[in-house]
Amino acid sequence: MKLLVKTSLYYLVLTLAVFGVGGMIMYDVFHEEVERELDRYLLRELWKVEAAMENGIPASTLINENVQICLKEGDSLSETRPVFLDTIVFHPYLKRMEPNRKITAIKKVGEQYYHLSLFDVIVETDDIYDGVVRSLTRIFALLAIVVTIFGVAFSRYLLRPFEDTLEKIQTFRIHNPGPLDFRPTRTREFADLNKFLSQMTEKVRQDYANLKEFNENASHEMQTPLAIAKTKLELLLESNDLDPEQAQLIGSAYSAINKLSKLGRSLNLLSKIQNWEFSDTKEIHFSDQVEQTLFDFKELIEMKRIVLNTDIMDKVWVSMDPELAGMLLSNLVQNAVRHNHEGGRIDVLLDPSALVIRNPGPAPAIPPEQFFERFKKSNQSGESLGLGLAIVKKICEVSSFSVQYEYTAARMHEVRIDFA
Asked: Most buried residue, 42, 98, 109, 269, by most Cβ within 10 Å?
C-alpha cells in the first residue's frame, strides 16, 4: 500500500472518529438550543393565556389540544413560578405518542386560582438526530471523495521526487561509475534525503573499490607463492629417493595447498557474484549450454562408469549472464559427479520452466537446505570445499531464479532450478 493511500485512510478514519464525537456535541448543542427556544415560546404562550383570562375571556374558550386550564379550589392557594417538564403526548396525525415540552403554573385571575398547563414541540429530538446524522454523513462522503481525488492528483506532483529517488536506489549498482543523478526538488525533506543518499552511495563505492582492490591483490599475490609451492612439491614427489612416509607427507601438503588455491578462487568468485560484477544479461540458448557442459564432463563421467540419462528440450532460452551460466552448470554437474558412486547415474532434465539434476547417494548428514550455506557439506566427499552449492545459490539469486535441494524417497539427491 502506498504511503499516500495509507495516510489518506488514516486521515479518513481519524476524521470519522472526530465526526462521531462532533456529531454528539452538535446534537447536544442543537437540542439545548431548541429546548431553550421552546421554553421561551411556552412561557410567552402562558403569558398570553393569562392576559386573555384577565381581559375577561372565558377559560373554556382558551382550552385546546395544547392548553389545559383547571380551576383550583381551596383556602391556602398561592401563585407558583412556571415549571418546565418533559412529557409524552399523543400525536393526532402520526397516531403515536411523541415527546413534548410542558410548562405548568398556578396563576390568580381575579379572585380565582387556575392551574395552567401548556405543551408543544417545535423540533422533535429524533428529527434533530436524523438531521445531524444526514448532514455529517454527506459532509464525510464529500470529504472522502475530495481527499481521494486530490490525493491521487497531488501525489503525482508532490511525491514525484521521492518516487524518482526510490527508482534510482532500486537500480543502483555498486560497480557502476558516476554519482546518482537525483531529480531536483524544492521540498526540503526530499532534498536532504537525496543529499544523504548521494553521500552514502559515494562512500559505499569508495569502500567497495578499496575492498575489491585488496581482494584482487590478495588473491593474485596468494596464488603466486601457492603455485611455486605446488611446483616444488611436484618436483619432490618425482624424486626417487623418497620413502613412502615422506611421499605421503609431501602428497598431503600438496593436496592442502591445492585446496587452499581453489578456496581462494571460489571465495573471490562468490564476492564478485554478490557485488553484481557479472551483469551482462542476455538471452542464451540454455539447451546448448547444458549439452556442452555435459560433453565437457564426459571423460570424468565415463571414468566413474556413471550412466547419464538426459531429457533436454531443444530451444530453451534463459535470460542470464553467459559466464554465470557456465559456472552454474559446471558446479551442478561437478557436484553430481563428485557425490556419486561407481556405476551410479545422473539424470538431467530441462524444459522452459526448470532444470533438474539428480544423482543417487546416501542420506545427507545435515538438513538439505543447509547445503546452500558456505562450507556446509555432508560427509560424502572429503575433496569438496562446501562452496559449490553456495555459488549456485548466489548465481540463482542474481539471475532471479529459485533453487531447491531435496533428498527424495528414491534415495536421490535432486537440485531443481526454476527459471520463472
From this structure: 42
Question: Which residues, at least 6 apart from 173, have a Cβ–Cβ distance to it below 8 Å?
Answer: 276, 279
pLDDT-derived band of residue 199, with 50, 70 and 90 as boundaries? confident
In 286-419 the beta strands, taken as DSSP E runs, fall at 307-312, 317-320, 345-351, 354-360, 402-407, 412-418
Q: Helix, strand, or coil here: 154?
A: helix
Please, are residues 168 and 181 in contact by the beta-carbon 8 Å criterion? Answer: yes
How confident is the model at residue 149, as a pLDDT? 78
Lowest mean pLDDT among 38-42, 77-81, 114-118, 406-410: 406-410
Q: Which residues of 384-409 are buried (b: 16+ CB within 10 A; e: fewer)?
A: bbebbbbbbbbbbebbebebebebee
- φ, ψ of residue 417 to 5 degrees: the values are -115, 120
For residues 240 and 395, which has the higher predicted lDDT (pLDDT)? 395
Alpha helices in 366-415, H assignment, sequence order: 388-398
In the chain, the amino acid numbered 241 is D
Region of 276 (left: φ > 0; alpha: ψ -120 to 50; beta: rest) is: left
CA dihedral 85, 88, 90, 91 (to 10 degrees): 80
Per-residue pLDDT tens over the stretch 281-329: 889 999 999 999 999 899 989 999 999 999 999 989 999 888 888 888 9
Flag whether the pTM goes above 0.85.
no
Q: Which pLDDT score, from 0 to 100, does residue 362 have? A: 80
Cβ-based neighbour number of residue 118 at 10 Å: 24
Phi, psi of 191, deg, nearest 5: -65, -40
Contact of 390 with 328, CB cutoff 8 Å: no
Contact indicator for 287, 350 with CB cutoff of 8 Å? yes
Radius of gyration of the chain (CA): 46
Neighbours of 81 (CB within 10 A): 6
Find the Cα–Cα–Cα–Cα dihedral 362, 365, 370, 373, rounded to 10°.
Answer: -100
Instruction: pLDDT band for 381, please (50, 70, 90 cuts).
Output: very low
Asked if 377 and 371 touch (Cβ cutoff 8 Å), the reply is: yes
Question: Contact at 8 Å (CB) between 327 and 387?
Answer: no
Query: How many Å apart are CA 186 and CA 183, to the nearest integer?
Result: 10
C-alpha 280/C-alpha 322 separation (Å) is 8
Q: Which residues pair with 114 in a beta bridge?
A: 71, 107
Q: Which of 86, 129, 81 shows the shortest CA–CA distance to 105?
A: 81
416 vs 350: CA distance, rounded Å: 10
Which pLDDT value is given to residue 82?
A: 92
